[in-house]
Amino acid sequence: MLELWSPATRYGLWRRLWLALAEAERELGVAIPDEAIQQMHANLDNIDFKAVAAYEKRFRHDVMAHVHAFGDVAPAAKPFIHLGATSAYVTDNADLILMRRGLDLLRARTLDVLHSLAAFAEKWRDQPTLGYTHLQPAQLTTVGKRATLWMQDLVLDVQDIDYRRRTLPFRGVKGTTGTQASFLELFEGDHEKVRRLDQLVTERVSFPRALAVTGQTYTRKLDAFVLSVVAGVAASAAKFSGDIRMLQSFGEMEEPFESEQVGSSAMAYKRNPMRAERIASLARFVNSLEGNANQTHAVQYFERTLDDSANRRLVIPEMFLATDAILLLVANISSGLEVYPAVIGRRVAAELPFMATEQLIVRAVRAGGDRQVVHETIRKHSLAAARAIKEGADSNDLLERLSKDKSLGVRLQDLRGAIDPRRFVGRAPEQVDEFLRDVITPLFAGETARPERAEELRV
Amino acid sequence: MLMQESALPLTPFRRGKVRDVYEVDAGRLLIVATDRVSAFDVVMGETIPQKGAVLTQITAWWLGRLEDKVDHHMLSANISEIVRQVPQLRGHEQELRGRAMLCRRTTVFPIECVVRGYLSGSAWKEYRERGTLAGEALPKGLRESDRLEPPIFSPATKADLGHDENITIDRMRSLIGEPAARELERLSRAIYEAGRAIAATRGIIIADTKFEFGRSKSTGGEGVEKVILVDEVLTPDSSRFWPADSYEPGHGQSSFDKQPLRDYLDAEKRAGRWDGNYPPPRLPKEVIDATSERYLDIYRRLTGHSLDPNGSH
After folding, report:
1. Do B114 and B224 share a domain, yes or no?
2. Cβ B279–A19 below 8 Å, yes or no?
3. Per DSSP, which regions of A57-147 are E strands?
């Protein structure tokens, strides 16, 4: 991703766009010699950035600086580079190509994460754990089922990426105010050739179509569309990181912790969820920029104003780079998550007797009790047990209290049997199986073999 | 003469990646196939000599062979005859030789009629993911490139953006009506099976193909609208052509027409000289010639004679 947003990639793309324009103009009858095309072709990545800097200092214009630097290494092409075009021809079209490739990279990373989480969900498919609503213990779920919630968000993001990727249009060849006037001049009033030029260049760079109309630039709504998808990925990761941080606080799960990692400079025993916290930190940065793109679009006046430019140069690359970093962190965490079933079990045991009261009532009635009386009895004991815990008891003794209450006439052993956690997880394990089978497997089946990822988490 | 662009004294009607369509008058169109070629979704900078002529003449040849099965839109693919019928094209004979086809205008059904006789491409992908093709379950255990018996009819609509969208036969019925849907499926199967059988005797597997049909503007006898085969027919651009002698199910097959080009581009990719994006490498003359020769070879094999540069039909 860093390479994608590098000057070498961006300005290499500008040169490719100049080549595509010259090739297409030549096809349509502009007298551009083959030597010019060859020299352009041979120098696409031969960019002398010092020369560019010197030109830019003179011209105060980045596109013209690059035109001249390209012309220096492709002298036969010099008279033809940028013929008929306005700066936005290279700047805007290159941005669209970069964003489209950026979406591809984010998609690949998201699939990496889904691979790790799929293995995790399968392994822990039936490990009962406390579910939470209102951040209060609620009915049980399983560790694997919770992972499918994280996964589903990312699958939805992938679908969104795919849609945007597939439908993202090209700016194309439109001229200074989007009217194609300079090209109409170039082709001596031949409207068909001007239309064809737009189409030829668009085909060459493998976009499905060019926008039908533009001002000088493509509508900045496209940036807002793409960046909203990027922000969506970041938001999904942030939700994941929040859960991890809380689970680590509960002691139920931990993000990977290296053998020599230091948790705190002062509190030597500490194991902080610092990777998940970094996700939260970066995701907040990304999400804070999402609205920026719509604001830029909103304040573009008439055919374009330049107040988009400096802003976009920061916002677009930074959102992609930060989200890429976020996904690297999510991949790292999700492939090395530690689960502590003993802690999870203790926390379940502390809450489960309360949750099981509905079933306890049924048992007691079956043993001959009156439903209303039983309910009142259990309510009193529940409150007493809860108070005892808050006042320092080491465990939830509701079952013991109930078994000692002669009016109920149930045995402790029977009560224990009634609160096997596996009976409280509903269809969670089956939902994991079904989700992996129906959603994840088809998603991966369409993918070619995963390339080895060279990038590791460095900090 | 090589040609990438045709600029004719006719009104452009539609321009595709490789073919341009012009309006001659209210009743006729001129379809011109260019020599442009794409591979791996990228259009090459160079053109392939004779490719356009081969595509047009293969279509013309098939239409002649299929006349007992289906009405078609071709009036002529012979340049002298075309210029005789459309005098304003005089002077453009050189650039149109072999590659132009004069056609009757029809109202085209908005359906791509795809017939698959072998499991390949997006059909293989769908089968591998879900065990289905066009939403219908297929037998388990099929391998990539396996022959499908009977062939499978899988219609698609022309999507606005890029790739066509597969639809169910029910959806096709609701789009064009039950009788037309039945007729398009019947014709597609009949033409494909006839074509597949003929090509097989010439060492070519036509793995799958795509047809388009139109309705005649004037109705036939008893007021029934006739269904007419339009567009290109059983060409290497509208179909997958595989060499029969190297056919081996279990993996993807080589492409009869584009393999020299793909091999070259693959080698450039492996050598790190091409990243798959624009621009593709410049094609050496040997690769251009070998690809051109492939197209001519396909024409010779199918028809049993060499390409007549004027267009023989």
Report:
1. yes
2. yes
3. 128-133, 136-142
Q: Domain containing B39: what range? A: 11-104
- Residue B100 or B127, more confident: B100
Q: Which CATH code fits A1-83?
A: 1.10.275.10
Question: Into how many domains does chain B fold?
Answer: 2
d(CA B45, nearest CA chain A) in Å: 8
- B90 and B52, same domain (yes or no): yes
Q: How confident is the model at residue A450 (pLDDT cuts 50, 70, 90)?
A: very low
| Cβ atoms of residues A434 and A146 within 8 Å | no
Residue B293 covered by a domain: no
Domain end (from B230, B246, B262): B246
* CB contact (8 A) between residue A199 and residue B15: yes
Per-residue pLDDT band for A4 (boundaries 50, 70, 90) equals: very high
Q: Is residue B255 part of a domain?
A: no
Per-residue pLDDT tens for A90-116?
999 999 999 999 999 999 999 999 999
Same domain for B138 and B213?
yes
Spatial distance between the Cα atoms of A305 and A282, rounded to a whole number of angstroms: 30
pLDDT at B14: 84
Based on the fold, state whether residues B136 and B155 are members of the same structural domain.
yes
CATH of domain A87-168+218-339+428-459: 1.20.200.10
Sort out which chain B residues have CB atoms less than 8 A from A167's CB and list them: 161
pTM of the full predicted structure?
0.85
Question: What pLDDT is stored for residue B160 in this prediction?
Answer: 55
CA–CA distance, A278 with A288 (Å, rounded to integer): 15
Q: Which of B81, B104, B127 is the last residue of a domain?
A: B104
* CATH code of the domain containing B165: 3.30.470.20
pLDDT in tens, A184-196: 999 999 998 999 9
Contact between B5 and A196 using a beta-carbon 8 Å cutoff: yes
Let me know if A270 is exposed, middle or buried by CB neighbors in 10 A (0-12, 13-18, 19+).
exposed
Q: How many other CB atoms sit within 10 Å of the CB of residue B15?
A: 19
Nearest residue on chain B to A445, alpha-carbon basis: B129
- A298-312, A392-406, A429-443, B161-175: lowest mean pLDDT where? B161-175
What gap in Å lies between CA B262 and CA B279, rounded to an integer?
A: 15
Pick A209's closest partner by Cβ from B4, B161, B279: B161
Cβ neighbours for A216, distance < 8 A, ≥ 6 positions apart:
A86, A88, A174, A176, A177, A178, A303, A304
pLDDT given for residue B163 in this prediction: 60
CB contact under 8 A, B279 and A442: no
Note the pLDDT of residue A455. 55
Residues in chain B with CB shorter than 8 Å from the CB of A192 are 7, 12
Average pLDDT over residues B178-192: 95
pLDDT at A229: 98
Mean pLDDT taken over chain B? 89
Q: Are residues B146 and B235 in the same domain?
A: yes
Residue B137, CA distances (Å) to B128, B131, B133, B134 in order: 11, 6, 6, 8
Same domain, B99 and B156: no
**Residues B157 and B129 reside in one and the same domain:** yes
A438 to chain B nearest CA, in Å? 9
Q: Are both B138 and B65 inside the same structural domain?
A: no
Phi then psi for B76, rounded to 5 degrees? Answer: -165, 150
Fold classification of A357-418 is: Ribonucleotide Reductase Protein R1; domain 1 (1.10.40)
The predicted model gives A147-169 an average pLDDT of 97
Residue of A162, A206, A438 to mutate for B, most B C-beta atoms under 10 A: A206
Catalytic residue numbers of A read 134, 264
Round to whole Å and give the CA distance between A93 and A106: 20
pLDDT in tens, A325-353: 999 999 999 999 999 999 999 999 988 88
**Please, are residues B47 and B17 in contact by the beta-carbon 8 Å criterion?**
no
Q: pLDDT of A267-295, one tens digit each?
A: 777 789 999 999 999 999 999 999 999 99
Domain harbouring B56, CATH code: 3.30.200.20
